[in-house]
């Protein structure tokens, strides 16, 4: 089994087919197709069912996904074990983050890390469902996951709390809303809202808080892309709940922002396997914890 074959196999799995995998890898479709056929021949198993033009994993294919990810993860970790003349790690560090944490604190922490360890390139993936945070680490998708806490099914992993994320109410420019700041949720105006599908622990918490206050959420637009919430609000589509870092930016762009009473917040932190951390990963955890400490 060759590493490029493993990479092609996982690309087909992650991109739901050979065409999309080839496009993502920047290679010709026959290259990926041939690699999969050779891998199946070498392993003497069928990894995919060919259904029309689609590819569906067989039971043997499912069994290979976890070991294949760990194999590539080990290669990345080995590269991250290299240090420069000053003894600082080099190579690549793979992180995965839930979207609402990307702007803050992830961008800030990666910036602080890169200032201290410029020889390490950081690759950041998207955590679409926070319930899968622990499996992302176990299956070798990354070394470290940023998510809201508590992290499910993480008993065998290390969890480090870094801080608390708060949410604000953000209204389109010129909105006539109660002057109270913070605004009691019980006085939440009956305005249409820009929302995102569930997938993070905070989405359910916001919905429960609004319901406990005797109010409801009336969707104006449902967005798959969380980063698009603010542009939709600024365009007058509706109000939304935004993380404080984004809400502060919204004020500068003309939005009407109110804190919430009672406040809505979630703690966040890192999930990782300390036994599998590369030197780069260990350095990142150190920087993250130092940045999180008061003062």
Automatic annotation (TrEMBL):
It comes from the Bacteria. The keyword Nucleotide-binding does not apply. GO terms for molecular function: DNA binding. Gene3D superfamilies: 3.40.190.290, Winged helix-like DNA-binding domain superfamily/Winged helix DNA-binding domain. This is DNA-binding transcriptional LysR family regulator. It comes from Pseudonocardia parietis. InterPro entries: LysR_HTH_N, LysR_subst-bd, WH-like_DNA-bd_sf, WH_DNA-bd_sf. Belongs to the LysR transcriptional regulatory family. Residues 1-58 form the HTH lysR-type domain. SUPFAM superfamilies: Periplasmic binding protein-like II (SSF53850), Winged helix' DNA-binding domain (SSF46785). Transmembrane segments: none annotated.
